[in-house]
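Pasting as-is:
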Amino acid sequence: MPSTMGSTSRDDLSRAGAARAETASGTTDGTTTDGTNGSTNPGTTAAGTASTARPGDIPLRLLDEKGVRHPDPALDRWLTDVDAGTGDARAALLALYEEMVVARRIDAEATALQRQGELALWPPLQGQEAAQVGSAAALRTDDFVFSSYREHAVARKRGVAPVDLLRVWRGITASGWDPYAVNMATPQVIIGAQALHGVGYALGIQADVERGVVEPRQDGTDDDGTAAVVAYVGDGAMSQGDVNEAFVFAATWQVPLVLFCQNNQWAISEPVTLQSGVPLVRRADGFGVPGVRVDGNDVLAVLAVTREALHRARTGGGPTFVEAVTYRMGPHTTADDPTRYRDASELDAWAERDPVARLAAYLRAGGLLTDDDEARVRAAADAVAAELRAGVVALEDPPPLSVFDHVYAGPHATVAAERAEHAAYLAGFADTDTDITTGGDAGQGADR
């Protein structure tokens, strides 16, 4: 099989390569050029020709690429708070915009910190702000999130401090925050494993309700019902066994779960069309799970779709699969060079769909975003970035022997022996580092 890293890979990969070549003009998400929902694009969908497209293949959209708002009664009913035309509605829209701007600024600052040697690695999120902020805004505080390693905007929306987003990437800890403090697990690097974790937690919610441990919320709103779980995966994870097993268990037990896939078109250097000849949303059908495809660069559509999926989960309707079609504008991580496998023309086409610029255009057209608002948001983003940089630079390396702390809840003979052996090894360097053998309880081990 030809390499997928070469400049001619799209020609070499048969149907997958042909699909990408035909859609390089900017229709790789299957949306219509006029921004409407439900009509067929005269070109191709993300994985196939228009003649094979199904109605559900067209991503749902409310804001087109120019920021023009298109009505959709099925989605609009979930956005009454932001569509109300009141001061509160304006504040809610500006809050979404600020979250997206700040997320992008954090991402840029973290990338700079890595390039300057302050971080070992960083997985950028640029281009995916709407998918993350829109879905996170739909969550209740008692919902729980399981994510991959790129959901920085989701984590911030859940209350994770900026510096805590970067602790792991500086290499000084195994996790950056207390999951129970913000109801979000720390990032999962094993591709797709978090989908099974989400199903397990959702089963626990279900069991607690059935046993009367907790009572579903009953406030007479669309948020009524049990707590729910959102598990975020990428398009690459859709080929993992863990994700497919999660589908099976979620469907079998009808757990309160939203499996949210950010299809950013690339699994490192593998185009999504290589692993799937049809839109990913169709996979849900095979498991008997409702699936919906949404424009992942439209924060309002993402918010509406996620709210509906969460409502279904809370009220006994079982799991939902959401495919948010978006684009990874930067590298897979800062160790990646995307110029080796994707064309600049593809990047240019998706830049025209920028999620932040799209929402800004909508707000400005409606008189909801003034120059003063913009200046305030930019200043807030810069302040967060400054706080982030100062916090990361101030982080201290942990004592080497602390790696053995907390492997077990109590003393463990094997861990204690390993710790003593490593301490003896480190003692040989005592002349250059007097603190090298300090740190941690002798009988403990590390959460690694």
